[in-house]
Amino acid sequence: MADEVSRLLMLIDDEPAQSRLITALAAREGWRTLVVSDSETAIATLGTRQGMQLSAIILDQWVPGENACELIAELKERRPALPILVLTASASPLLAVQAMRAGANDYLIKPVAPDRLMLALRSATKNEAPKDELQPLTEKLAPVLDFDSMIGTSPNFRTALAKAAKAARNHGNVLIEGESGTGKEMLLRAMHAASPRAKAPYRLINVRGVPANSIESVLFGHEQNAFPGAFDRQIGALQHCDSGTLVLDEVDRLSEELQARLAETLASGIVRPLGANHGFKIDVRVLCASNLPLADLNDQGYFHPDLLEVISQTKITMPPLRERTGDIPALARHFLGLIGDQPGLRPLSISDSALSLLSAFDWPGNVRQLQAVLFRAAVYCESETLGADSFPQLSELLGEIEEEARNPMQEGVGVMLYSADGNLRPLEEIEADVIRLAIGHYRGRMTEVARRLGIGRSTLYRKLADLGIDNAA
Q: How do strand 174-177 and strand 285-290 relate by DSSP bridges?
């Protein structure tokens, strides 16, 4: 492969503005970009001296239109080892399936975030053996909007859900922390759908996806001529969500100055747009998510204590997938059911050997990464069942796993009898775990939970209170 500082990217795109943007973004990491505007020129370029120096191709699906897959296949036939990334304005799963089967390495939806573009380029041009299966896809299935659709019976996961369900019913601000891909955004959506403000104004903002010089205006709004380029008045998200809910994903990425201003606004209930001489009274519920523990950032001086206090009236921690491996079989079957409903795909089953393989991996990208891996495997599967051989990169990373070494059904029990020192856990702790497991298994239907546990409903509620278990019913 070409030296990193002289990597050459061919961009097949006929939009000058987008071409300039991608060229500028790629240049930040040492890429040179060759822009061609049509399929014929792209094919011809492969045979030139410059074409032989290419390290990757980005193809805007709009250029060849319906013939995009034919172009991808021809490019792959001529240069099999050359990574191809497809850029499209459509979120259609069918396009993703067709592009990947034609030979595309990744599928980017416009407008693509700079970080996402660079991650895709880095992943596609690694010098090591390809691990594309472990990279997240942009393909997203329908988001979960209720707690009953969230899969998992592990005690730490069910505790987080129970706490979220209880918090959803009031009007306080909520902070959800957890690693990337653990389902924080999904939980935020479920909380909003279950809240008293579900039908009120709502907006979700991913702080990382908004340019640093625009985020203040996006949140607080601005008056006309408040700054160069402010040709019109803009209502900010805080004012737009008056009487409703504002969701801030990756809130830890706010600058220190904006953290202080947001804390003051939420505490006073008055928002003042940029350039305005007066403020507006607002009633906004704020649901926040962070990949990093904000208390630690606060201790290190990187997160404003006033903002931490005002947004964490309830704090929920989403466990990483490696701490709830017993949920992997149920999650895998759930995702395969959703994937099978997508255009161009079909329902698939999964073997015990494949589940053992999935359960052995530590999933640094968590649930989102598991979904992406299953999606990719389903695209290329020619049989009716995914087996261990459907995940060659995982097999390569983990080596051979004895099938009897892991029993997915037993791992799904989710109740530990022994503590870390080898002694039995107190009966009260075990009983609490069993009740949490039953609540999760029967989706919070407390009458059914009581019946299956062989106790009365009033006894169940008394135990919930005595053991300090939040009720998600």
A: parallel
From 200, 272, 189, 278, select the one nearest 242 (Cα to Cα): 200
Rounded Cα gap, residues 383 and 380, in angstroms: 9
Provide the 8-state DSSP code for 86.
E
Candidates 400, 463, 458; CA nearest to 427 is 463
What is the DSSP secondary-structure string of 348-414? Answer: -EE-HHHHHHHHHS--TTHHHHHHHHHHHHHHH--SSEE-GGG-HHHHHHH----GGG--HHHHTT-
Judge whether 356 and 406 are in contact, CB under 8 Å: yes
118: region left, alpha or beta (phi > 0 left; psi from -120 to 50 alpha): alpha
Rounded distance between C-alpha atoms, residue 375 and residue 382, angstroms: 13
**Residue whose pair of structure tokens reads 């239109």 in the numeric block:** 65
Q: Which domains does the chain have, with CATH numbers?
A: 4-128 (3.40.50.2300), 155-317 (3.40.50.300), 324-405 (1.10.8.60), 415-473 (1.10.10.60)
Q: Please state, in angstroms and as integers, the Cα–Cα distance from residue 197 to each residue in 149, 167, 186, 267, 286, following that order.
A: 20, 12, 17, 20, 11
**Token pair of 215, please?**
């985020």
Q: Going residue by residue through the chain (473 aa), what tens digit of pLDDT does each one get?
A: 444 446 899 999 988 888 888 898 888 878 899 999 999 999 999 988 888 889 999 998 888 877 888 899 899 888 888 899 988 877 666 677 777 778 888 878 777 777 778 877 877 776 433 344 334 343 445 555 677 678 888 889 989 998 999 999 999 999 999 998 899 988 998 999 999 999 999 999 988 878 878 899 999 998 888 788 777 888 999 999 999 999 999 999 899 899 999 999 999 999 999 888 889 999 999 999 998 899 999 998 889 999 999 999 999 999 999 999 989 998 998 888 888 887 777 888 898 889 989 998 888 889 988 988 898 888 888 888 899 899 988 887 776 544 444 444 444 445 666 565 556 778 888 888 788 777 766 767 788 888 888 998 888 888 887 777 655 43
Residue with tokens 């702080």: 207
Question: What does the H/E/C string look like for 87-134?
Answer: EECCCCHHHHHHHHHHCCCEEEECCCCHHHHHHHHHHHCCCCCCCHHH
* Predicted structure pTM score: 0.64
